Amino acid sequence: MRQPILCHLGNFCSLCLGQAGIGDVEKPLHTAELFVCRAENVSIFFADLFGYEEQFNLPGRVDAANWTLRLPGDFEALHARRLARGAAIDLGLAVDLALAAQEHGTERR
Asked: Number of folded domains in the chain?
């Protein structure tokens, strides 16, 4: 079921992004897939959106540092920096890809 959606989104990416490789849009491509599925609600964890790789929960560990992953006050700048290096999810591109897939007949499954 997901193959036609991914195929269409991949083709759309290659047409619209020219020389950019699929690796450049892998995160928004997978996020776009969420938006064209049958789900009525989609939740994206902030750590994924911002490209955090740090482990924020260490099972079995009880101390003040556990469960303390926080966004800084300049979270917009942080997202922009991480987006520029390909670590964060480009949510705008993901939505554009999902809308384009729907406009071109890709059915919600």
From this structure: 2
